[in-house]
Amino acid sequence: MLHFRDPVHGFIDITESECAVVDTAAFQRLRRIKQLATTYLVYHGAEHTRFGHSLGVMHLTSRVFDSILAKNSDLFGGDPARRAYYRQLLRLVGLTHDLGHPPFSHASEDLFANGREHEDYTHDILFSDEMAAAIDVVNADFQKEHGTQFRISPEAIWLAYTGDDIGSALYQPDFPFLKSLMDSELDCDKMDYLLRDSHYCGVNYGNFDLDRLVDSFTVYRGKDNDQLKLAIASDGIQAVEEFVLARYFMFIQVYFHKTRRLLDMRLIDAMKEILPGGVFPTDVHGYLTWDDTRVMNELASRRADRTADLFLNRETMHCVFSSHTHTGAEGKKLYDLAENTAKNLLLEQSSINADNLGDFFLSDFPRKAVHKISPDIEDERGIPVVREGGLAPSSLLSESILLDSLRDNEIAIRRLYVSSEYREMVESILGPYL
Asked: Fewest Cβ atoms closer than 10 Å to its Cβ: which of 270, 391, 407, 414?
């Protein structure tokens, strides 16, 4: 067993066979992919990468899985080999789930071609020769210890990650449950990035009681007793509330920070000029040659280009209008009036026309659901609350007035940015809309 010393989780244990995955070029590339895009230009400590996050998610899948097993001794028929198989699959899902991220993570996803998403690249990398060979090292060790009934392969990892039944002989009915540990309102991915992003940004917004939350996880077997669902024990409700609120605060204060959002836009404009055709290669081998380091080097070689220079010199605009956190119909009406007023005022200037307006004026509309928890415990997004004594489970939303009040709400912030030379002029006329 080897160890990574992690600033969030302490020692992260990893087997020598799992290190074969970590040592691949595709995984090492994640050292050169910033977790929070341009946030380091706002919160200067946010230099962390997808590499550390992926290790953290792998670590948390084991913690959550082990916590659930400790409370449910008969889970998976009590079969030690099946339990070990699911645990190993989950660790590899956590380790590999972000392989397909582009340079600067989510910020540059608008530059994908042909409707591709970063998960599509993750799939292609997972099935590449190098990664498949590394995964086979894990499989050899697993089968040596647990027998050949189960096989660790790229296909099995992908099925556990997506929860989809594609008619594969490797598919297991429990895969949708495994998926929920990586893709749900209470998944290990969110748990790690909230704590990690808070740590590196130097803020407290994303902190929550991780130990209490992990200890609260259990299972619900569904009304027909044939489908496992991730659930929480009744004494863990407040831990879940804290977790959901932590994510809510991080989106408002960090992920949707006004300057970070503007710098992301600057970055995208600059990257369009250095990528062939303005988009990432669809071929996975060409795609993997792109990382943050290459982007910055390419931009540095093009300082004479205005878009590259704007980003490299951190040239920002002033946010002259920002709506409330939850923009409703009235807020949109106010925003539309402010936007039209500012545009018309700027277009009256001799140096500005419809073609170059974007050099002096930008708008932004970040939005995100506060949570997607369903009130129906049988629904994929429902979270059952399990009580002792054989009492019927209830819905988390029926137990939490706080979370129920946030249902169907979204963070929706409308902003207008103006270049420095026109800031005062625009602000003076937008007074009634602020």
From this structure: 391
